[in-house]
Amino acid sequence: MTGRRDRKKAATRKALADAALELFLERGYDNVTVKEIAEAADTAIATLFAHFPAGKEALILDDSGEREASLTTAIRERPQGTSPLDALHAFFAGRAPFREDLPAEYRRRMDLILATPALWAYARTVWIACQDTLAALLAEAAGVDEPDDSLHVLARYVLETPDLASARPDRAAALAEAFAHLKRGWPAL
């Protein structure tokens, strides 16, 4: 059970993120300041940065370890007989922007990210920060103690793939094609 302080922190984070999203959708990302977001959430600017030290981008793309945890789950809890690369393909195919059945609010957020260069770049940066974790997971799946250069390269390619595929007209097909190439390059995975 979470305590009162944790619930209050979570409520403040949500109020800030909700205010940012509404202002960004209403006026555009570049036309909103952190001061306006803090005011809309009835907090101080210092409070905003205490919760989101990375700034405006983090208000929309907060991570808090979710990406690394999700990658870990995708690899470690993949169905029996499923290769790590097939599991990663399924993982990314099930996330925005590759899913067509997203709830309306999430679709609005995704459209904002795809239309805003600063947000798209930040999303890529957050994913690329998972490279060492993914390389270690791939090493584990391959039965080796430490990832070699090849697994670091593969991890980077895997993490770059959604960014590249999401810019294509048929995102899902581009993602599938990219993973087909990765599987040819790393057939053991």
Notes on the structure:
The protein is mostly helical and 189 residues long. It has two domains: 4-60, Arc Repressor Mutant, subunit A; 66-185, Tetracycline Repressor, domain 2 (Orthogonal Bundle). The protein has helices at 4-27, 34-40, 45-51, 56-60, 66-76, 84-93, 104-115, 117-128, 131-142, 149-165, 171-185. Helix 5 packs across helix 6. The longest helix has 24 residues, at 4-27. The protein is globular.
SSE blueprint:
Layout: H1 4-27, H2 34-40, H3 45-51, H4 56-60, H5 66-76, H6 84-93, H7 104-115, H8 117-128, H9 131-142, H10 149-165, H11 171-185
Helix pairs in contact: 1-2, 5-6, 5-9, 6-11, 7-8, 8-10, 9-10, 10-11
| CATH domain fold name of the largest domain | Tetracycline Repressor, domain 2
Q: Which overall shape is indicated by the principal axes computed on the Cα atoms?
A: globular
How large, in whole angstroms, is the Cα Rg?
A: 18 Å
Structural class per helix/strand content? Answer: mainly alpha
CATH class label of the largest domain: Mainly Alpha
**How many distinct beta strands?**
0
Helix content: 55-70%
> CATH homologous superfamily of the largest domain, by name?
Tetracycline Repressor, domain 2
Low-confidence stretches: none
Report the sheet with the most strands, covering strand number, pairing sense and barrel closure.
none
CATH architecture verdict of the largest domain? Orthogonal Bundle
- Cα distance, first to last residue? 40 Å
Strand content: under 5%
Q: How many structurally independent domains?
A: 2
How much is the average pLDDT? Answer: 91
Order of helices and strands: HHHHHHHHHHH
Number of helices: 11
Protein name: DNA-binding transcriptional regulator, AcrR family
Domain HTH tetR-type: 10-70
GO molecular function: DNA-binding transcription factor activity; transcription cis-regulatory region binding
DNA-binding region: 33-52
